[in-house]
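To fix ideas, we close by showing one paired sequence and structure record:
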Amino acid sequence: MGKLTWRVRALAGTVVLGSALTACGGGSGGDGGGGAQLTISANAVAGGKNTEEAEWIEEWVIPAFEEAQAAEGVEVDVSFESSGVDDEQYKTRLALDLQAGSGPDVMTLDGIWVGEFAQAGYIEPLPAATQEWDGWAQIPEAVQQLATYDGERYGIPWGTDGRVLFYNKTLFEEAGLPSDWQPTSWDDVLAAAEALGGLGPLDDIVPLQLNAGTAMGEATTMQGLLPLLAGTGEEIHDGEAWTGASDGLVQALELYEDVYGGGLGDPVLQQETQGRDRSFAQFAEGRVGILVEGDYFWRSVLNPEGGTAPMADRDEAVGWARIPAVRPGAGVGGQDFVSMSGGSVRVVDPASDNAELAYELLEFMNSAEAITAAVGDSARITARDDVNAEVLAGDPLLTYIADEVLPITTFRPPLAEYPQVSVLLQEATAAVAAGDSSPREAADAYAEGLAEVTGRGD
């Protein structure tokens, strides 16, 4: 079966699963008796899921764009199709609408869906005018990967994140470690964890929390295995094929063995349903020395004001550092440090009756003025350097990620098979963390599963 046919059928399967859902409605409508009509869709609803995005679209984007177009002599009526469902349900709805030719003109996708929608023919590479949009100069090339498939930009990224090593400065001081710690190799990380291990047993102090196993789901892949793989110079998909039982994968799994087989991490915690949340609480209580996470951990978990595991002394006690490659220069692209990022992308339905105007709306929604309005009073990392310089000025961690991490980050492959591949990676880390398999055995089992899922091995 050809690559394109396989993936189109994979997405069609998603559509069938959601066939009982009601389609969102015709967003690519033509002239409604007045001016041109455009529809925006996002998995956001005022007062519910992603309420800030919904309110921004309804209260800022639509009136501002209509007014700007009116000033140019163009009458346009923009509407918003809100949604507040599970992400997979939202994805299925969009696929149904686009398949039926009634999709919205501008829509928000999770970046990981871009390749799947592109291969199904639902979205197309950006036209020349949008490829030359002046906003690209403000989006780091690494972040542009979020909206790129097979070397082509299909949309504009608007929000992203980054992963770092968080550490407890108080515990570091007790262990004789520097408060401005920045490891330059995996050996440096292990050495720090060993020093922290001298402070007490695992029941009291967990030196290093590196997500493992299936209970933590995608957090294991994004905060664990994939950054380590990038640190060996490899990615899980090289643009042509999936990475199988490679030397880099074995090396990453060997680090899991060092951590969990060496008593530097809690293997039982990785198997618990609420293990990730427990690790957050333990860090907030000063019981975890080093933890690999994204900026979400800082702004939404440890936040002294409204965090899920608030840490009163967060700003003084928490440090952060870039994730090192296995050794200097060994990371992806010869980098010394690595990270992984996720995020959302806005795209246009190429079948829109008003596609040219829809692309203007897309650029407008991703302008500096629009993104600044979207952030509002809450500091969040955006895809734009100019906006980040303004809205993150008061937050040192988010500024650090925007300045130091986004330029070196990498993204998950936007392919239909990825969710299944991710589970296979989680299973490999689980086997090693529990001591049930050696790194090589776990890598080989992963490769066998990969061949079943994709038809390709290493």
In short: The longest helix spans residues 51-71.
